[in-house]
Design brief:
Oligomer: single chain
Keywords: Antioxidant, Oxidoreductase, Peroxidase, Redox-active center
Order of helices and strands: EEHEHHEHEHHEEHEHEE
Number of domains: 2
Number of strands: 10
Pfam families: 1-cysPrx_C, AhpC-TSA
Function: Thiol-specific peroxidase that catalyzes the reduction of hydrogen peroxide and organic hydroperoxides to water and alcohols, respectively.
Shape: elongated
CATH class of the largest domain: Alpha Beta
Largest sheet: 5 strands, mixed
Protein name: Peroxiredoxin 1
CATH architecture of the largest domain: 3-Layer(aba) Sandwich
Bound molecules: benzoic acid
GO molecular function, one term: thioredoxin-dependent peroxiredoxin activity
């Protein structure tokens, strides 16, 4: 089907009206796909785990090569947090398999997570991993470029955090791990995290908890303002 941006279609065969709106807290849309680890049903793949789904514009491109190598080297960090990784790039499996060799050579890595072969951008459109400019900046088949998206999904399959980067800007793996740490600590302890928070720093008592209740729940509560209360981040 032809691509159009003027008649209600969002790129390749995807009417704007049928584009799912992926909001924080919504269930991550399911899909079936071919990956470097075989065919998957996404919901079955992530079942019971945290997951990070992250996309790349294309195989054999420089920024993407550095990103995949960096994520591959953090396998133990993601595993420690119970997070399954899955990448996506808009090429086929033969291309992915060859590209992984380059990635591992350049980054001295051993890439072990699956990469979705999304040559027809089916998953990219399902997750709206395409920018406005790229809807008009299409390839020879009439399909738009995939941007760098990150979806962090919790064990209930809810989308908890998204990051969208243009093709020209590589991501920051430390920030991805930091936000996972914040989400997991928040879920476990009912706290929120301030600007530039790092593991071990003080955390914030959310406005829904009174200072009195906070003092019973946490050992130390520092009240800076009636609505800004900190407690130690070393809560077990
Ligand atoms: C890159 O990975 O370097 C890249 C990919 C697509 C467009 C621009 C840059």
């Amino acid at each position: 089907m032809a691509t159009s941006t003027t008649n209600g279609f969002r790129g390749y065969a995807t009417p704007a009206s049928s584009q799912p709106s992926i909001r924080l807290g919504s269930i991550a849309p399911n899909f079936q796909a071919r990956t470097t680890h075989g065919d998957i049903d996404f919901h079955k793949y992530i079942e019971g785990s945290w997951a990070i789904l992250f996309s790349h514009p294309a195989d054999f491109t420089p920024v993407c090569t550095t990103e995949l190598g960096a994520f591959a080297k953090l396998k133990d960090e993601f595993e420690k947090r119970g997070v399954k990784m899955i990448g996506l790039s808009a090429n086929d499996l033969t291309s992915h398999d060859k590209w992984i060799k380059d990635i591992n050579q350049v980054s001295q890595s051993d890439l072990q997570f699956p990469i979705i072969a999304d040559a027809d951008r089916k998953v990219a459109f399902l997750y709206d991993m395409v920018d406005q400019q790229d809807l008009t900046n299409i390839d020879e088949k009439g399909i738009a470029f995939t941007i760098r998206a990150v979806f962090i999904i919790d064990p209930a399959k809810k989308v908890r955090l998204t990051m969208l980067y243009p093709a020209s800007v590589g991501r920051n793996t430390s920030e991805v791990l930091r936000v996972i740490d914040s989400l997991q600590l928040g879920d476990k302890k009912g706290v929120t995290t301030p600007i530039d928070w790092q593991v071990g720093d003080d955390v914030i008592v959310p406005p829904t908890v009174s200072t009195e209740a906070a003092k019973q729940k946490f050992t130390d509560v520092k009240e800076v303002l009636p609505y800004l209360r900190y407690t130690s981040g070393n809560i077990k």
